[in-house]
Amino acid sequence: MLHHQTTNSGTFAAQLFLGSAALALLTLAFVPLQVDLGLSAFAFLVVILLVSLMGSFTASALLSISAVLALNFFFTPPLFQFRIDAAQDLALLAGFFSTSMTMAQLIRNARTEQESAREAEAKLKHAEIELRDSEREWREVFEHNPVM
């Protein structure tokens, strides 16, 4: 159990670090180029979804929140302020956040289903082995029984 917790913590930390680094690099590249909010949000969403494939939903949620804050601060007029003046920018940020959270949840659900399928497959293989062993044992009983 401790190994599993350590692995989860390591995955969480790696996911958070890689995602934060990727978002920071995108921000550093996009701000001087004066990329608009929509394109920046799309690029941030792609990064969050790719990093979500690593595993931790919590890390994906934290990245989504930090991405919304970064998009608001660096790409939403007035620039370099945590304020939104246009309703369309607010709608875009809300859509970005809900999409990133929904996709992270879907990825988590798919991973859970995949793990359940692997466990069921392992149980089925184990039951098949037990059935073969039992069949072999009974065959030996019948074959070596003089009455039969």
Notable characteristics:
single chain; 148 residues; mainly alpha; 4 helices; 84% helix; rod-shaped
Describe this structure in words.
This protein is mainly α and 148 residues long. 84% of the residues lie in helices and 0% in strands. The chain has four helices and no strands. The chain starts with a helix and ends in a 5-residue tail after the last helix.
Secondary structure: number of strands: 0
Order of helices and strands: HHHH
Report the portion of residues in β strands.
Answer: under 5%
Name the average pLDDT: 89
Fraction of helical residues: over 70%
Overall outline: rod-shaped
Low-pLDDT runs of 5+ residues are none
Gyration radius over CA = 26 Å
- How many helix segments? 4
Distance between the termini: 51 Å
Oligomer: single chain
Structural class of the secondary elements?
Answer: mainly alpha
Please give the largest β-sheet: none
